[in-house]
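Methods: example folding runs. The two proteins below were folded one after another, and each record is reproduced exactly as written to the output file, sequence line first and structure-token line second.
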Amino acid sequence: MSHKRIVIAGTRSGVGKTSIATGLMAALAARGLKVQGFKVGPDYIDPGYHTLATGRPSRNLDTFLMSPADVLEVFSRAAAGADIAIIEGVMGLYDGHRKDGGGSTAAIARLLAAPVLLVLDATSLGQSAAAEVLGYREFDPGLHLAGVILNRVGSEGHLQLLRRAIEDYTGVRVAGWIPKGALPSLPSRHLGLIPAGEQRGLKKVLEELAAGVAAGIDLEEVVSLAGRASPVPPGAGRSFAAASLQAGGWVPVAVARDEAFSFYYHDSLDYLTALGAEIVPFSPLHDTALPGEAAGAIIGGGFPEIFLEPLAGNKSFLADLRRRVEEGMPLYAECGGLMYLTRGITDLEGRTWELAGIVPAGCRMQARLAGLGYREALLCRDTILGKKGDPIRGHEFHYSLLTGMAGDFPPAYTWQAGEKPCHEGYATPGILASYLHLHFLGNQQAAASFLAACRRFFKAYRRRNASCNY
């Protein structure tokens, strides 16, 4: 199988690869191409910008959260029907989650046999830029480094100095350049960029990004380079087809989707759908109750701390959620969802906002990072995600901590933190809430277990309410 594809990588974080990758997607889409966006790693926010720029849901490619075969399957499924795939990298080109660079942008580029355009911040650089590019080229000669994009170039003379040095000393072509200040800045806060769903006027910003990128980068050359990629290597998984074969019947699953809760991997929800879930969106911010037909609920990550007043003020929804959980409805929550389920969140000013009270603990925001990284965990007990001892893989990134755990607080997971075991999350027979973000395609048994719990509840609930029409 062959798809036009190219990776936009950076020498490090902060060089402008998100702006340039998103601008490329928007510029090519504006020219009538069907553009499929991808993001390397566990990022939730950048894909939202890609999706708005292309009109197609952006997908995550992560070989820790998924197997390489599943990454190939995700890529091939999403790229089908697209004219070109633009893959935005993570951190620096070779930064991965293992010593061997596993999970890095370079590893994904090799897996997909995709050429790479390297974004280099030219600020205060002259001929030293050539040494930097040479290092990236020689570090892995097997990687197809197709060109360099120079960002934040000071002047035409600065460009000529950089271009001569890079092309003469490394043989790598300068494929484009962006003058300093030519691209609009994307607003950010403590976890990175502000999600696209929270911003007004973002379409205008994307138009400006597209115009700035198109002015400095030859779009036809980018498409040409993407077309020189070798065929996608064999070995793609068949997880979605297998899920459809083993699906145990349709079941409605409510998923929180609004400004406060938006962190979901698109293929994770697609995998639940393949297993038989009908995803029913709801909003803890705006709805007064859960969807009546819901046989289970998922409250994903996001920024509840930004919306504490309206979340706490929606008393009718909080009461309905508590009622449904008391009836036995399975409830799964991640990070921001965990925070929402606590007795309340204390903000950075010391104010506490009362929330669901389903998890018997408080939650306190802090100015410094509280948890970051990939985790290989085990379930501490039998839960809606599986049996005690079942393995789980995920990622955490948060600035809050649980406080004042009441009584016998049953953790969800355990993993090794150095030489010490770490216990995290909260689990009862019907609830699992944790800071850990999961990708269900990479935790297929957990996905099947959750939907099995939803089906059991759905059948029991329908028996108790035989007069209701579902």
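Second run, written to the same file directly after the first:
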Amino acid sequence: MRRLMIRASQWSAMALIAAVPLTIAGPAAAQDPTFFDNQRGVFSFATGLEQSLPAVVQVTTLAQSSGPSSGDSEPRQISSGSGVIVDAAQGIIVTNNHVVEGGGKFTVDLFDGRLFDATLVGTDKATDLAVLKIEATGLAQVEVTDSESLRTGDLAFAVGYPLGLDQTLTMGVISGLGRSGMGDRIEDYIQTDAAVNSGNSGGPLLDSRGRLIGINTSILSGGGGGNDGIAFAVPTRIMLYVANQLRETGEVKRGKTGAILGSLNATRARSFGLRIVRGAVVEDVAPGSSAEAAGLKRGDILTRIHDRAISNAGTVNATIGVAAPGTELAVVYLRDGVEARTTLTVEDSTTKDVAVGAEVLIGRGASVRAGSDGLVVFAVEGGSSAANAGLMAGDVIRSVEGRRVSSLSALGQALGGEGRRRLSVERGEETPTITLD
């Protein structure tokens, strides 16, 4: 059965019934109100969770109708999801980018039945996050905790408005951490088996004390599109960085190091003579970059960064992407099978718009390698102008602004500077034109 990554707002209904036995030591558990309600004599997590439920909202995205009916000017609903209030005083709500994408108007339904129009503060496609703002009093806000403290096996609760229902809470466990490699976005997901369905997108993932640990964003599903018990959430470590930048400037500026990375897999591991299949391969290093200063070279295999194990290139991109310029990141890598250590300094992403290495170019979010067939795109950064324009891995770039390019240096000169660039590419038997902002 083919497995697909499907956004939460696109899922179809599927019943999920799970019994989760709890074994709690008698006297100690009976005295802890987090787990045992002495008055009712039942195990319950309601005490911690009920404090956060009023902060979970329903988000409806509307756009102007283009139909010929008499109601042409009336907004029509194009999507619906969930969100969570993280700052009650300012009316700040975090949700998913794909919940608000394409919208011209947004409304927020509160837990207490009130309805408000919302203003879109900013969006970030690379992390699938968005920030909304409402003008309201008497709001509740969720307590945010550090997602770095999570452990596989911790209980987790998903809250939202799935399948047209009112606010719904489901329970599961953290079934994995640091998940990535499922797309072109900045990925470092929390994996859980808490039931999540259409309408849960943008809603909170809470711990057993009701504290926010992540924002539900997608599931891994079989061909039927239902909930197979594998859902993913953006951790608060990334959410806080993105939300703060969107609130401050309306956009997210990411750091970089000049290392152009690919993911290690079984095939590449065999070619390197390695007995590991997790890591990030240095494809090339931009001249004058901090990666070059750190001594990294093409073919090095990164295995740890900032004391975190590296699953693939997504792990590195997620760590660098939420680090402020000037941050020093300790790196462990393999070179010819021998382990070594160095320190990468995060650079401002605006220092260079195009970096050309000996065999690889990176510019406007596209990583390009010179091959026998020409200039081949082998990676596209999520949320970049290349990704937004529809450039894809495997595309062969033939010309820029009508002028043929046959070398990395020529492509670098053509892409450098400000303004739009029209690229003619080969994609199988097609020759689409890609316009990069």
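Comment on the second run: Confidence is low (pLDDT under 50) at residues 1-6, 9-31.
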